[in-house]
Amino acid sequence: MAKGQLTAEQKKLDADIGIIAGITLGVFLLYCLSGRQLRSFVLGGGASLPLRLLASAGMQFGLAGLGITVVCILRREPFSSFGLQKAHTIRAIAGTALCFLPYLGYLAVSGQFDGWQPFDLLVADQVFDSGNPWMVLLGMGLVILVWGFFEGFNYAVIAEKINRRYPSHRFWLDYGALICALVCLLLHPLQFSLWGTLEIITTFLGIYGMLLVRKRTGNAWGCVFAFCCIWNAF
């Protein structure tokens, strides 16, 4: 369909996707330019822990969460309209876990499996080491919100926006899941060795699969579960 023949809904979806992509790309470029300084600031002891935590969480939220939040506010679309519901939650979580089994198998055979350590991030280690129970409670709440909820839910919203704009009539062909899986790979370091190729394949299967499960069940909690209990836990 020519540009001039687009419906109002299609134009709105194009704008939504453009806003999300623009914000994400802008923050990613900022991270590329300042990543070393940010890491030094977060790991250093020159500033207070809450400030360093907020700096790290702010960058992460900008990469995975800010774009969809801006769009949902502009369109007055509640997060619940993108699959945050009670129905089929167990099915969504179980299906997502199955999709990540190849990735867990890759970790095991490549010798990278160190046990289940949810949110074993540098910033989380500092929160625990602070010894302040309130800092631990509030800090881990922020970590779970940004690195868990928003990182997973971000994919669910973007995939649905893309699928509304470019629907596929074949279940296994999902343009939203395809683009999200490819973006996930591009935002993380790629290695084209044997183990690196296996990591690419299993990561793609995990992300693509969890979004197919989200489409099948209509429930996005599986995506949140993946980033809370699998992606950031092994």
Q: Could you explain the architecture of this structure?
A:
It is a single chain. This protein has 234 residues and is mainly α. Helix content is 72%, strand content 0%. It is built from ten helices and no strands. Helix 5 (101-109) packs antiparallel against helix 9 (194-217) and helix 8 (175-186) packs antiparallel against helix 9 (194-217). The chain is globular, with a radius of gyration of 18 Å. The protein starts with 7 loop residues before the first helix and ends with a helix. The model has no long low-confidence stretch (mean pLDDT 91).
Gist?
It is built from ten helices and no strands. The protein has helices spanning 8-43, 49-63, 66-75, 89-99, 101-109, 122-129, 133-165, 175-186, 194-217, 221-231. The protein is globular, with a radius of gyration of 18 Å.
What keyword list fits this structure?
234 residues, mainly alpha, 10 helices, globular
Report the uncertain regions: none
Q: Mean pLDDT, as a whole number?
A: 91
What structural category characterises the helix and strand content? Answer: mainly alpha
Distance between the termini: 45 Å
Q: Please tally the helical runs, counting DSSP H or I stretches of 4 or more residues.
A: 10
Give a quick account of the main beta sheet: strands, pairing sense, barrel closure: none
Count of individual beta strands? 0
Written as H for each helix and E for each strand, in order along the chain, the element string is HHHHHHHHHH
Percent in helix: over 70%
Rough shape?
globular
Portion of residues in beta strands equals: under 5%
Please compute the radius of gyration using only Cα atoms: 18 Å
